[in-house]
Amino acid sequence: MPMTASINLTQAARQALLLMDLTSLNADDTDATIESLCKQAKTPFGHPAAVCIYPQFIVTARRALIAHKLSGEVKIASVTNFPDGGDDIMAAARATREAVASGADEVDVVFPYRTLMAGDEETCLELVEMCHAACGGQALLKIIIESGELKESALIKRASEIAIEGGADFIKTSTGKVEVNATLEAAEIMLKAIKDSGKDVGFKAAGGVKTVEEAAEYLALATEIMGAQWVTPKHFRFGASSLLADVMATLTGNASVAEQGGY
């Protein structure tokens, strides 16, 4: 590998680490799983922006981050209306409010994408607005539009626009639970929607970003559209579970140690 490429990958790895929402959203998650996730967040090269977990593990994560002296440094993100993206507005808002009350700093809410596909934009907007209100100014609202299910460019753009209009602090590609998750094509549409809105809204690529090389492509795209100064944890995140291993392998030069979390 040419030296310039190696340097660029190292820089991308360092940047990706700081932009990561280190994620565990599995049906078999336990307190021990989440405690291990929070331990992985403490690295010699800095820490992810957040851990992203189911609501029932918010308190566990809070305690684990305190134990690792990461409280206040690593945010706690949780998920609601997840992963199905139903159109029950009050249920989504209630779950969001409960997540915030439990201590979530950020809530990733699945947009009712099937409802949009059926042509009902009003319900979609109201759900985002109600979840925004449920955050009460205490937590960031990240709206997952499920771009891989929307498929069509026009629908991805419209979902982004509705989410932004409804008060989303971030728009996010995917749940990671469908066949097609984050893609560069969807990311470009979403980033351009943010730019066109003129609003202070961030972007999160989630699901399928597993290597530093892949992360570097998203970083380059965001830099091209929004500018290098925009690409910070305030505006850009990767939702990832396996990306950390490749980041650490790149930064330590030791893939086996990185994969085991022994860095």
TrEMBL record:
Query: Which InterPro entries is this protein grouped with?
Result: Aldolase_TIM, DeoC, DeoC/FbaB/LacD_aldolase
In terms of superkingdom, the source organism counts as Bacteria
What GO MF terms are annotated? deoxyribose-phosphate aldolase activity
Q: Which Pfam families match?
A: DeoC
Q: What is its EC number?
A: 4.1.2.4
Q: Which Gene3D superfamilies match?
A: Aldolase class I
Keyword flag S-adenosyl-L-methionine: no
Annotated pathway? Carbohydrate degradation; 2-deoxy-D-ribose 1-phosphate degradation; D-glyceraldehyde 3-phosphate and acetaldehyde from 2-deoxy-alpha-D-ribose 1-phosphate: step 2/2
Write the record's keywords in alphabetical order, separated by commas.
Lyase, Schiff base
Please give the catalytic activity noted in the UniProt record.
Answer: 2-deoxy-D-ribose 5-phosphate = D-glyceraldehyde 3-phosphate + acetaldehyde
Keyword Calcium in record: no
Using the record for this protein, list the coiled-coil segments as residue ranges, or answer none: none
Family statement drawn from the similarity comment of this UniProt entry: Belongs to the DeoC/FbaB aldolase family. DeoC type 2 subfamily.
User: Known NCBIfam families for this protein?
Assistant: deoC
Name the chain's protein.
Deoxyribose-phosphate aldolase
Q: Which organism is it from?
A: Halomonas llamarensis
